[in-house]
Amino acid sequence: MAGSSNVLETAREDDFVEYHLYPPIETSDEKEQETILSSILSKANKIVQKYTENYLWHKDEFKLICRTSIYNYLSHIDGKKENLPPHLYGVSHYGDNIEDEWFMVFILQQLTKEIPGLIARVYDVDGEFLLIEAADYLPGWANPETCENRVYLSEGNVHLVPRESLDEDRIPITEALSKIREQPANTVASTDIQNSIKNKLKGYPEKTKDNLHRATIYVPVAIAAILKKKPNLVAPAVQAFCNRDPVDVKACRAMKYFPPENRVMTSVVFTKCLYAMLTHSKYLPDRRTGWNLPPTSSPCYKAHNLGVKVACGFEILISRAKPSADIESDRGWHLYLQSLRDKGYFMGLLEHSIDHNNLLNKAKEHYINYRDTMQYSPAVGQEILELAKTLEYNVEDLKSDERNLPKDDDDSWLNISPEDLDRMLQEKYGQKRNLQREQRRRRGQFHGEGRQFLAPRVRRRRRRVPRSKRLADQAPRRKNKTKVSFSQDTKKTEQKPVNNKVNFDPNSFACAVQNILNFVIPEDDSWDLESDSDMSEYEEDNYVKDESYREVKDKMQEYMEQMDRELASTTIGESFEKKNGDSFEDIESFKPVDIDVNALKNILESYRSQLGEAGPSSNMLGPMGVHLDPNGSGDLN
């Protein structure tokens, strides 16, 4: 069961970054270690506060705790444990904003500069991710397995502890720390590696201000007061709204704690990542709740729309807050339990068996004891609930503040032209970098082993890409692609050479969708299985003469006749819209189905059922420039 207990400690989402800070402590007395660590922690917190005073964390903040030598380290590669010297420890989730992870690296770098003797180690689910950024400049022996426990920050520099022999792979952390302190010149990384990390951290902390976006939102007065008191609570509210599930949607329809009757305009600062998430998360509020959005053409629409989403996020957070004893009703517990299942914690044991129940009880105990340090914690919801009950505010003051709100920031950065995208990609991955890489390869300075660091990170990023996009990426790639033109003659093809730009033809796409909608019943007998009109030209084919084919043909005819008999006894045909005015003299009382009208009604019905969310209808109509008004009825007149 030792492996299962390890899973309890490491069961977390993939968006985490873990960090250790090792001061030079010689004593083995635990109380003395705590005293020294507490003093260093106080200094570290002052430095962290200096750089993060106005920083808005996307998910978890940078936070350190003291750990004496009784703690051990669990390897993320082979699952082995080893004793650690006393240190400061932290783990944070950064969500969709990768900037938070690198800002934490910057903070660790500054801590090692400003506190003498402090050595930092940082890694995430991909392992030693600092080396991923410097993958082009790694020594020949470096790969994800051999570099574990070898990458550190000391006095602001990157240190890579070299291997002393080919047989030496994993090095104990205590030994690595000793080598860095005793022989720093032998462990400091190359200039190229140093520059790679410096370029990644260039501009901090000043550039954190460029990552913010101010916008006006129209929210219930209680939320305006809470955000004025604690503006950082907008981050978990946006996260909760954008990651809502059906249970959360029910809470949004009730709006028990933040009803929309009394609202005010207020100015809120988001990160650009949070603002983009909120803007692109479609939501159609229930009018019965009391939401009354203005028309989309109104200048107030954006503030109203953003305000609805933020208010729903606060409502969701409160609805998730549960008493600590009520674990079965705790949404965080179920998320944690699912994470344990995904990591194989129960080892395939039969549910409700004795061994399974023992593991389940251990997991519950671990969750209750460490719930506040987990991202599943309902502590934020409880904090908001407490503020909603106890925070005193004056409604008139909030309304008077509406007249002096700062101007919204320009959000044109949300839209990027193809030319700008090409330029950005060229700057990041363009010809200049490829030329430098080729020069290094020819000089024998580029080692392919470094690219192994990229593989796990790419796999993790692919898990966040929609499945349909991944399948498209898996399509065979050829030197010359065949472009198929969606025209009346679908047999025509055009050979085009491959280039590095993405070409999208909206007219061809519209034609393709139109061909799907424009079902046409042929007037000839080309679909008649008994007709020789289309099959005569294949009569010489041996395949057609094959008895197995004829059996398939007869079986198809039998199925069609059976389906006609079954449908004839139903009323399904009455649900279709019929055309008037067409003459069918040979069949009395027959009205042809108006397929265009039926297809359009089904699309509108699908759009209405989406409640403003992404779905097949909006995905199909959007690229064609068709955008339905969320405030409209969606009925077909």
From TrEMBL:
Skewed-composition ranges (Basic and acidic residues): 429-438
> What start-end ranges are recorded for coiled-coil regions in this protein?
none
Region (Disordered) residue ranges read 429-501, 614-637
Instruction: Identify the GO cellular component terms for this protein.
Output: nucleus
Q: Name one Pfam family in it.
A: SGT1
Q: Which InterPro entries match?
A: Ecd
Q: What is this protein called?
A: Uncharacterized protein
Query: Which species is this UniProt entry from?
Result: Aromia moschata
